[in-house]
What does this fold into?
Amino acid sequence: MKQRLTSTFIQTWLQTLLTYLKRYKLILSLLVLCGVVVSLSRQEFSPAPTKLSSNFPDAIIHEFASYRFNEQGQLEYRLSANKLVHFNKDDHSSLSEPLLLIDEDIAKTESINHTERTHWKIRAQQGEVYQKSHQLILSTQVTLNAYPKTEASPYQLETNYLEIDTQSQIAKTQSKIALLTTNSKTHAKGMTANLKQRQVQLHQEVTSLYEASLSE
It folds into this structure.
């Protein structure tokens, strides 16, 4: 009789223990699952690491100057700037206060220190140079001073944007432009200038004002 009671008690105790183990197993599984969800949610909302831009400056030059000579050794132009910043990715350079001097008739030995004979002096507040396309883009207070080598009077062109092909020496703009001489002022929209031949063509909306008092 005692053996039957003991056996019954042991069976009851084992069943109770298995029941608790199943419950704890379920609770443990739920805790593990919650931990995984919390971990995934943290990963989902965590910010992605910041990547550095690949188009970063690889060279900075102060008091920059470059010279281009033709096959006869004559200076075609001189480009200078207070500061040049070169970007590696697209091989372009940013210029601060660029100055472009053009005179194809000065000999190589005379050109560097005798810029007073330059027939084009072009300056701006900002500039961009693209080496592959031979393009110089000038912006903000762009001025072009022309010094004819004949008896004609010098004149000045003013605009806020100008594109120059340094190889063909063709300058273009679609912005407003002013042409100033000693006794006249002309306004227009758009211009094409052949810097080699010293020819300027104004596109549209051309108006001129002649001031006789300036010629007296």
